[in-house]
Amino acid sequence: IKNKDWSYHSYRDFEPESLIEASNQFIKENLYVVRLGSKTKKKLSSKNKKIIDYPNTGLSDDFLDVFLAANCKLYFGGDSGVNDIPLFFNKPVYLINCSLTLLKIYSEKFGKIFITKHLYSNKMKKYLSLREIFQSGLNGCSETHKFLDKDIKVVSNSSSENLEFAKEVLDDINGKRLLTDEDIYLQKKFWSICKEFMPEVDFSNSNLNIGSNFLKKNFYLLD
How many other CB atoms are there within 10 angstroms of residue 22's CB atom? Predict the structure, then answer.
C-alpha cells in the first residue's frame, strides 16, 4: 500500500541475522533455507549457498513468492502476512518473535509451536511477567506507540533462542519432540494464566504450543 506509514508496526521488526544460526541447523538436516519477501532493509550476511536470500537475487516475483511458501517443508519466521500462504496450503508454521500481547490470536490461528518477544519495563527495570502484561492493560496491544507510551521496550528473540527453537521444531517435524512432566506443567500454567484474564477464550487447543526450552529458560513469564 503506497504512501502508508507502517511505523506503527515497527515493534514486530527483528534483525535477519538472528536467524543465521537457526538456518544452519536446518541445513544440517539437509534442508535449504529461503528468505521470503519482496523488499528488504538489508541483505543477509551468510555465505552459505543453502541459505538463499531470495528477495535480493533479482529473481523474485509475486507468483514465485506464493509458489515457494505453498511448497515449503515448513515456515519458520516472524508473524508476517506471508505466513498465511503456507498456512492456507496446510504447511507447518512455526513462529518466532510473537507478541505476548496477542496470545489470543496465536492460540486461535496457529496450531504449531511458537516463541515470543520479551517486554522490558524501563520503569520497573525488569521483564514483565504474563500477569503483569495483563494487569498493565497491554493485552491486545499491536501498535508501537502504545508500548512507548508505557515505557516498554520490545526485545526480539536472540540468535541462541532461535537456534534452540529450531532444534525443537526439527524434533517436532520428525516426530521426536518429547515433553517431560515439567514441560507439560509449565505449558498448562502458562495457558491457565491466559485463561484467568481471558475467560471467554477457549485455550484448549493451545495446551502445548509454547516452545518448551524457551519456557523453561524464561520462568519470569509465570511469576
Answer: 25
